[in-house]
């Protein structure tokens, strides 16, 4: 019966959830991003941290949107948990600084005590970064509890064994090619009318979508979501970042990985255009084959004229096949990475996209 109902209800309910869960407003997005950036720059520590770093030596991993739950049918993190733990083991062993970009805990659908009970291993893995003073925890809309509940500090201490600060954003500051270079990071829900503290969305997720999702065991976070043009919210984030000098913006929230301002689909079309310009027939055929396999509805390919490499999105750690994506900043480079299950269900790290920081096209 469950499979029968899944076939009937999955697409329409996911479409409904997406429609009422996201409503970005450009003016609100611009104002929210600008206000937070200025507050962090003004050293308002309650809002976020500014960290100087050495681009050649320091290493950061940025992961978001785990949505750790109760290991029930609504827990979209359950399949990805082993990949997440393997990733944290790798990054801790290799001395990365971990920036958790929000929505780490699914606190719209679950009580904190429930999430705590079912995710002890992940909290223990995160504690290793805290012990090295290599951890920043940023809140998102689904774990806004960490910012606005009077007992949040007690909750954080109970899972990490010590006091842990919570922030809305962070800025990494360095020098690239002799010029100032900043990496501005926040969850990305700011300016979304249905996510930025909206009570109706929270009620819908906890009381309607959550139980329905739990029964049908639906995870709407499919890798196919990457095979699209940028969502409206990602596009607005790009537009904000493209107007700033020597800054790149990294967010999460949309669950759609973006690298150098392009989604996977947009990156394929960009590479196809370059291959055609270079008369590389073999590369053209290979790229066109990849695009054809996506089974997309006919539409006009995107126009990349004037694009800058200013916006990145970490994707999520809750895809329905157990994959997780994130952003690495290390060795003078920025990378979009994926952890997936290989042979024997062992976790493996893949570099999907990579660029040297000095090669990014920025406004200066």
Helix content: 25-40%
Q: Oligomer, anyone?
A: single chain
Q: Indicate the structural class.
A: alpha/beta
Question: Strand-and-helix sequence, N→C?
Answer: HHEEHEHHEHHEEEHHEHHEEEE
Number of separate structural domains: 1
Strand order of the largest sheet: 5-4-3-2-10-11-12
| Rg, nearest Å | 20 Å
Overall shape: globular
Per CATH, the class reads: Alpha Beta
Q: Approximately what portion of the residues adopt beta-strand conformation?
A: 15-25%
Q: Supply the CATH superfamily name.
A: Metallo-dependent phosphatases
CATH fold title: Purple Acid Phosphatase, chain A, domain 2
* Distance between the first and last residues' Cα: 59 Å
Q: Extract low-pLDDT stretches.
A: none
Largest sheet: 7 strands, mixed
Mean pLDDT: 86
Total number of β-strand segments? 12
CATH architecture grouping: 4-Layer Sandwich
Features:
364 residues, alpha/beta, Purple Acid Phosphatase, chain A, domain 2, 7-stranded mixed beta sheet, 5-stranded mixed beta sheet, 11 helices, 12 strands
Q: Can you characterise this structure?
A:
- A hairpin with a 5-residue loop joins strand 11 and strand 12.
- This protein has 364 residues and is an alpha/beta fold.
- The model has no long low-confidence stretch (mean pLDDT 86).
- It has helices spanning 2-21, 26-41, 81-93, 112-118, 120-131, 145-148, 152-160, 199-216, 232-241, 264-277, 281-292; strands at residues 48-52, 60-63, 97-100, 135-138, 166-167, 169-176, 179-186, 247-251, 311-313, 324-330, 333-341, 347-356.
- The strands form two sheets. Strands 5-4-3-2-10-11-12 form a seven-stranded mixed sheet. Strands 1-6-7-8-9 form a five-stranded mixed sheet, covered by helices on one side.
- It has one domain (2-262, 307-359): Purple Acid Phosphatase, chain A, domain 2, CATH 3.60.21.10.
- Helix 1 (2-21) runs antiparallel to helix 8 (199-216) and helix 3 (81-93) runs parallel beside helix 5.
- 37% of the residues lie in helices and 19% in strands.
- The N and C termini lie far apart (59 Å).
């Amino acid at each position: 019966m469950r499979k029968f109902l899944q076939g009937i209800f999955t697409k329409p309910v996911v479409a409904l959830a997406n429609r009422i869960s996201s409503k970005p407003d450009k003016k609100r997005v611009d104002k929210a991003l600008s206000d937070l950036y200025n507050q962090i720059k003004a050293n308002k520590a309650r809002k976020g941290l500014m960290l100087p770093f050495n681009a050649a030596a320091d290493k950061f991993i940025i992961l978001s949107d785990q949505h750790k739950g109760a290991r029930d049918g609504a827990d979209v993190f359950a399949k990805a948990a082993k990949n997440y733990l393997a990733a944290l083991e790798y990054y801790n062993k290799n001395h990365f600084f971990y920036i958790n970009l929000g929505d780490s805990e699914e606190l719209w659908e679950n009580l904190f005590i429930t999430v705590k009970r079912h995710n002890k291993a992940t909290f223990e893995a995160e504690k290793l970064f805290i012990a090295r003073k290599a951890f920043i925890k940023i809140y998102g809309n689904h774990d806004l509890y960490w910012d606005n509940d009077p007992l949040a500090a007690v909750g954080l201490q109970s899972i990490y064994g010590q006091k842990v600060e919570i922030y809305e954003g962070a800025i990494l500051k360095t020098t690239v090619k002799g010029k100032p270079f900043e990496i501005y990071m926040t969850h990305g829900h700011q300016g979304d009318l249905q996510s930025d503290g909206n009570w109706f969305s929270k009620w819908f997720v906890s009381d309607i979508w959550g139980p329905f999702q739990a029964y049908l065991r639906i995870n709407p976070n499919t890798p196919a979501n990457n095979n699209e043009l940028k969502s409206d919210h990602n596009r607005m984030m790009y537009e904000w970042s493209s107007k700033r000098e020597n800054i790149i913006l990294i967010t999460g929230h949309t669950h759609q990985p973006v690298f150098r301002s392009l989604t996977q689909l947009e990156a394929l079309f960009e590479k196809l255009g370059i291959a055609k310009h270079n008369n590389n027939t073999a590369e053209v055929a290979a790229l066109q084959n990849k695009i054809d396999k996506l089974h997309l509805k006919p539409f006009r390919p995107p126009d990349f004229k004037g694009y800058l490499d200013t916006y990145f999105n970490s994707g999520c750690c809750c895809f329905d096949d157990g994959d997780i994506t994130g952003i690495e900043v290390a060795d003078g480079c920025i990378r979009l990475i994926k952890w997936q299950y290989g042979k024997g269900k062992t976790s493996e790290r893949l570099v999907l996209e990579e660029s040297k920081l000095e090669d990014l096209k920025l406004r200066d």
